[in-house]
Amino acid sequence: MPTKIVIPYAPRPAFLPFHGRSKRWACLVCHRRAGKTVACINELIKAGLSEGKKDGRYAYVAPQLSQAKDIAWSYIKQFTGALPGIQYNESELWCQLPGGNRIRLYGTDNADRLRGLYMDGVIMDEYAQHDPTVFDLIIRPQLIDRKGWAVFIGTPAGHNKFYEIYQKSLGIWENEDGTKFDNAEWFSMVLKASQSGLLPVAELEAARREMSVEAYEQELECSFEAAIKGAVFGREMKIATDDGRICNVPYDRNAEVWTAWDLGIGDATAIWFAQQVGREARIIDFYMSSGVAIDHYVRVLKDRPYNYARHLLPHDADKTELGTGMSIVEQLKSMGVRNTRVVPKLTVSEGIEQARKFITRCYFDQKKCYQGLEALKLYRYEYSDKLGIFAKRPLHDWSSHPADAFRYLAIGFKPESLNAAPIKYPNLAIP
Ligand SMILES: Nc1ncnc2c1ncn2[C@@H]1O[C@H](COP(=O)(O)OP(=O)(O)OP(=O)(O)O)[C@@H](O)[C@H]1O
Ligand SMILES: [Mg+2]
């Protein structure tokens, strides 16, 4: 007789509709500490044990792999520990369920690990904090051949990709052709602390007293309207949006293009492309990748039709690297990229001040700069709930690479037209 296995998970009532949904896509906007991660891990376990797929592959994806490891891995073990024959791979962070299906943990900061796979079901936890291009470009195609499902879950962080997905799930998102997004295949749910009954009232009252109105509204009442807590460029990016400066900004063939790079060795590299036209700094393009050598980025420059003026590099780009015995400047030069300029070394906060001023005269192309713009909006000082203060330096996550490259652009972007000496007219002596 088969033995009955009991998984030690009693769903919180608020999550029952989610576990019982039949739609392929789901968006859950939930307050902090609602039990999002626990519910999602158990959704993956349930799917892995009951969907009956051969060699099923399920994924839990956090914004950072380290976050997935710190939090979700212990939940995985807690809820699968009683299953007979369960196997764990500690270095690759996957578990194999009885029957052979696997659940694996990923981070979108480590997108290379995700390439070349197929997926049957994916949880995107804390979706407002993710690099939104990773789902669109890498994960979504992996769900095609086996008709996999996806869940986007998190707490809001302003009008970013998570907000777009929430609006799509409700069917109120407007497509480019003016029609409404078809949400027939979407499950949608909002869980506010004032309604869920999941957190003790006294705790909520204390939090309301201690947190700013904005932070409370965002974190506990699921407001997409509150500004992102600690956003470094929050004010400037909001003004740029309100002014209509995030729009269609085509390449102007009559002006040269400057680029600014943040170079990540074993990390992401981000590049902004800018032109000066009159008083306007036009930010026409953006590129980011990771896990590839520098010649990849040289090709990115060459593949674009731009006429380059200068390439701005971080202050340490002229230091010799141990591996190659050459500096980044020398490596670029050997590949034909000569007109580089190493930007002066400023502190992060000095650079941020320059970038804030710079944004006020920038026009951004909303399509080509989409990923960079999302990063500039999200780049933030981390808030310590325990200490009640913001960290002195912004948080290092996917958004910090585009933000660093943007600082270098703000520091080094000095087209001649702005610095040209005043025109001297001949003395027109009038008798
Ligand atoms: N169904 C449940 N039964 C018992 N405890 C639960 C359940 N769901 C969540 N919890 C507990 O509630 C706490 C918060 O859970 P979880 O980490 O899933 O919340 P979260 O919404 O992801 O929080 P955060 O906003 O911090 O990411 C944890 O201590 C967890 O063990
Ligand atoms: Mg969580």
CATH superfamily of the largest domain: P-loop containing nucleotide triphosphate hydrolases
How many helical elements? 15
Low-confidence stretches: none
The number of domains? 2
Structural class: alpha/beta
What small molecules accompany the polymer chains? adenosine-5'-triphosphate, magnesium ion
The CATH class of the largest domain is identified as Alpha Beta
Mean of residue pLDDT? Answer: 91
Radius of gyration, taken over Cα atoms and rounded to an integer in Å: 25 Å
Tell me the overall shape.
globular
- Would you report the number of β strands? 17
In short:
The chain has 431 residues and is of the alpha/beta class. Helix content is 33%, strand content 22%. The protein has two domains: 207 residues, P-loop containing nucleotide triphosphate hydrolases (Rossmann fold); 183 residues, Nucleotidyltransferase, domain 5 (2-Layer Sandwich), CATH 3.30.420.
Q: Could you characterize the architecture of this molecule?
A:
With 431 residues, the protein is of the alpha/beta class. It folds into two domains: 13-219, 3-Layer(aba) Sandwich (Rossmann fold), CATH 3.40.50.300; 234-416, Nucleotidyltransferase, domain 5 (2-Layer Sandwich). It is built from 15 helices and 17 strands. The chain has helices spanning 16-19, 36-50, 65-80, 132-142, 161-170, 193-196, 201-210, 213-219, 234-242, 294-303, 328-334, 348-359, 370-378, 400-412, 416-419; strands spanning 25-30, 57-62, 87-89, 94-96, 102-107, 121-125, 149-154, 186-191, 246-247, 257-262, 268-277, 280-290, 308-313, 340-342, 362-365, 381-384, 389-394. The chain has an eight-stranded mixed sheet, with helices on both faces. Helix 11 links the parallel strand 13 and strand 14 (340-342). The chain binds adenosine-5'-triphosphate and magnesium ion. Adenosine-5'-triphosphate binds at residues 10-12, 30, 32-38.
